[in-house]
Amino acid sequence: MKGTVHYSTDGELAVLRIDNPPVNPLSSGVRQGLSDGLEKALADDSVKAIVMYGEGRAFIAGADISEFGGKPEGPSLHACLQMMEQSPKIVVAAINGTAFGGGLEVALCADYRVAAPSAPVGLPEVKLGLLPGAGGTQRLPRLIGAEKALAFILSGDPIPGPKAKELGIVDDVIEGDFIKGALDWARQQVAKGAPKRRIRDDSGKAAADRGNDEIFAEARRSAAQKMRGRFAPEMIIQCVEAAVNHDDFDAGMKVEADNFRKCLEHPQREALIHMFFAEREVAKIPDVPKDTPVKPIASAGVVGCGTMGGGITMCFANAGIPVTVLEMDDKALERGLGVIRKNYQRMVDRGRLSADALEKRMGLISGSLDYADFGAADVVVEAVYENLDVKKEVFKKFEAVCKPGAILASNTSGLDLDAMANVTTRPEDVIGMHFFSPANIMRLLEVVRGEKTSKSTIATVMQLGKKLGKVAVLSGNAPGFIGNRMLAGYTRQAGEIILQGATPYQVDKVIGAFGMPMGPFQMHDLVGLDLGWRARKLSGMKPEDVPITARVADKLCELERFGQKNGRGFYIYAEGSRAGQPDPEVVKLVEETSAELGIKRREISDEEVKKRCLYALINEGARILEDGIAIRSCDIDIVYINGYGFPEVTGGPMFWADQQGLSNIYQDILKFREEYGDFWQPAPLLEKLAKEGKTFASL
Ligand code: 3H9
Fold it and tell me: Ligand 1 center to residue 254 CA distance, Å?
């Protein structure tokens, strides 16, 4: 059994100390310990009150997520909660640190709650595709009213102790020595003869909302907007409705239990819990142990203050790290810094940043025209034009000015990192830091390991990623790294499918319905169709050598349709709008291109569109795993969800593939190969796993 609860007495108090490092989830041993401790306290006549708190930084982080889907051991949480609630002696929850999910629900079964000022309190179950299933949906509306309870449970966001007091979730906030203060507080309750106070017995606040249907209509509107496609929010709303509509507490608990089970059995729950563990797993690099020394990062430098460089500069400033950003001339620098200020100002206008914080962040940023200003920087990141020769020149300059041991990073999205490292005499300090646009917003950071990158450089940058608020995933150095390498096959399929009979609008609709924020053609319009077109022109590529899947985009560019930037691309955009309208002219152009290429058009089903786009990702993902470019399949999932908008509720492309059954995917790929040729050669790893009936996650 995992975890334990230490029992002791302190005068008239029984003290239960929950101990399940590092964050005290309610694993089987904790449930057993709580049950034993309560029994002991109830049997001891000298005990007048029971106080519980957690060892270390958490009170209780919630149910043990790793137990979901398995066979439960030990007493159920509900049995422990019933003991607490039915105890004739008062119970005080001393919330010393994180009280999440089942942890807060334990506290809601106590008669009294006190919290440390810094203790985060929350019901984050919705983020895992679940609902508070230990009475939270019934007790919280009774305690604070349905509207506030719904907002709290549906957001899943934590609040600190003082805010919890303001909302009425805790009775008091204790400053100073928390445990001592909490024990004194409990003793005072005993001295006052404080009564038992069971939330379940007082439905007043919930009942007051009876008949106020607008609360639930608003919750549904908000959930549809903010959590499109999610299963759990509606389940939560129904539970709170039950709390409001039933005076009988147990009737509401039954609705909660039924809906909790529905969530538990839903594939979204499995996918979201996979994401929870995957986010923690990606930080673990097998040959870079946890105790690898990291270098302190107190200052940074960024080369280039364009879209990428400006965003990266903001990331450092947001994390409180002073940063020098370099441009070629005054004009470019002024423009870049102006854009950064405007971005911050927009945050201020939307109430997401204070005017003070704006100035503080701008104060951390200094502009420069001289590489010598990077002399003291602990890390420098280049974000110049995506051209290997240009980047090599930047690394030569880094070599000349940066102090020994400084981390020299490239933001390249797919070029050869070793080629850059080898122009320096310190390739061990060179690493890829591939941010995703807009860099100050997107959570993904692809960290690229060169042949000679040192373990300390890797450990430092992985940790720096976290400090910058990113989820950092390590990739090997191979063209396109993890994300863009997979994307290539996906966009190629989309390009082929439209030549064979679908329209760009059908493809985008199918991908949108799958849950991606945009389809491949909307993405092309956003990025700009002219980038590839210009690069092909510059390289002197003949029109007949242009890949067939890029022909339509190039023709659009010849018609000066570059995408969103000039209001016309695959779609037509009204002034200032990002929502494009389909254009019959584009469909005609696609049809003409098919005819020129001698491709006979036919109807392509939505199902085929979906499979071809997604299987192209998965097949390449299997190769990336096999080549050791990604460490685990969950690393690929994290890349796709955080960098490319793959829907979180699927758990990422590789997890989704596991859920579909690799054998099914393999069979479809074989059919595609027969029909469409060698692009669809199944990856050997996919073939092997499919034949063995295994999953990517089993590797
Ligand atoms: C629930 O409660 C359902 C109930 O309503 C109904 C029940 C009937 N379980 O994040 P960290 C591990 S649903 C198991 O790196 P931090 C985590 O994997 C639950 N393990 O630390 C990691 O392991 P490792 C509702 C857990 O300080 C280690 O602890 N609760 C759990 O940055 C350290 O975690 C939640 O959703 C868990 N519940 O953040 C809370 N929590 O070292 C989820 C953590 O091997 N947890 N671990 O990689 C969190 O949000 C954060 O972990 C927390 C600490 C804020 C607590």
Answer: 26
